[in-house]
Design goal:
This is Transcriptional regulator, LacI family. It comes from Aristaeella lactis. This protein has 336 residues and is α/β, with parallel strands linked by helices. The protein has 3 domains: 43 residues, no CATH class; 134 residues, Rossmann fold (3-Layer(aba) Sandwich); 131 residues, Response regulator (Rossmann fold), CATH 3.40.50. Helix content is 45%, strand content 16%. The protein contains 13 helices and 12 strands. The strands form 2 sheets. Strands 2-1-3-4-5-11 form a 6-stranded parallel beta sheet, with helices on both faces. Strands 7-6-8-9-10-12 form a 6-stranded mixed beta sheet, sandwiched between helices. Helix 12 links the parallel strand 9 and strand 10. The radius of gyration is 25 Å and the shape is elongated. 41% of the residues are buried.
Length: 336
């Protein structure tokens, strides 16, 4: 039979009030802390988290809703975030909505029924409708990677400077003499997609290069989508001389498409990819990349959520914007 709080009281000689204070995160005397931890170990005591959450009205669980669990960028952020939250005694439940708005809303409702203390979301539904119930319940909400404009001031967010990320890549290619620059973007009308497109267009216009619609393609943030998008670019009569691909999975898909068509990088086509992950080094070494701070995003997200949880009655919502880095490789050079 599992040990109870009363068993722990008998073993330590301490009152239930002291034990309850300890398990609910309160400060107790050092000698009592030592007694309690020794007794917990001896009796293999496991706190009843359900009972504790009913009493404190806090589950110490954070819900996370993401579009694709198979996405390496997302999993890297979750790992970084969870490391910090676990140290503060918070568990994490991750729900994958598979980029489906209905699944996303269902996931939010599921987590609310599980009485999560906070909600972290990389949004698929950019209207924010899926978060209405969480907002009504006064649950702290943190967006990562994507801002929902209609919810500014009501939620917090951690994002990168997406427009600047795209401008870094395009400026690099223009500096080498490229004027026909293709881009593979993600899902149309997402915050990240729009911001990266804006960065691309703004730099072209600054350089006096008229943007050409045929060089703008969408790969839905997937390998398959990017593979198809690059094949379409290669079929153009006036192919681009350079290509910027705007996420990790799509960079892999683009490189596979170029290999399939025997396109040499950078001799036939200069390429700048996205996200510095170990897999690139194994498959396509020396790519020039725009690097996002995945660990930094996860760290900032966890700490910002902890701040929100610590100020539930008077939260200060803010947007944290992180910078990207252009990592030089050998996949770009001047057009021939």
């Amino acid at each position: 039979m599992a040990s109870t709080l009363k068993d722990l009281a008998r073993e330590t000689g301490l009152g239930l009030a002291t034990l309850s204070k300890y398990f609910n995160g309160g400060a107790v005397r050092e000698k009592n802390r030592v007694l309690i931890e020794a007794a917990v170990k001896k009796l293999h005591y496991v706190p009843n988290e359900v009972a504790r959450s009913l009493k404190t009205k806090h589950s110490r669980v954070i819900g996370v809703v993401i579009p694709e669990l198979s996405n390496a960028f997302i999993t890297s952020i979750i790992s970084s975030m969870e490391d910090i939250l676990r140290k503060k005694d918070y568990a994490v439940i991750v729900c994958d909505c598979r980029s489906d708005p209905k699944r996303e809303k269902d996931a939010v409702d599921f987590l609310l029924h599980r009485r999560v203390d906070g909600l972290i979301n990389m949004a698929t539904d950019m209207s924010g409708a899926h978060l209405k119930s969480a907002l009504a319940a006064n649950i702290p909400i943190l967006l990562i990677d994507r801002i929902i404009d209609s919810l500014r001031g009501r939620v917090s967010a951690v994002v990168i400077d997406n427009a600047h990320a795209a401008s870094q890549a395009v400026r690099k290619l223009i500096s080498l003499g490229h004027r026909r620059i293709g881009i593979v973007l993600g899902i149309p009308n997402l915050y990240t997609t729009n911001q990266r497109l804006n960065g691309y267009l703004n730099v072209l216009r600054e350089a006096g290069i008229p943007p050409e619609e045929e060089y703008i393609r969408y790969g839905d943030y997937t390998m398959d989508g990017s593979y198809q998008a690059v094949q379409e670019l290669l079929q153009l009569k006036r192919r681009p001389t350079a290509l910027f691909v705007t996420n990790f999975e799509m960079t892999l898909g683009a490189m596979l498409a170029l290999q399939h068509h025997n396109i040499r990088v950078p001799e036939d086509l200069s390429v700048i990819g996205f996200d510095k992950l170990e897999l690139f080094g194994e498959i396509f070494p020396n790519l020039t990349l725009i690097r996002q701070p995945q660990v930094g995003i996860g760290r900032e997200a966890a700490n910002l959520m902890l701040d929100l949880l610590g100020n539930r009655d008077n939260p200060t919502h803010r947007i944290v914007t992180l910078s990207t880095e252009l990592t030089e490789g050998t996949s770009v050079h001047a057009p021939e």
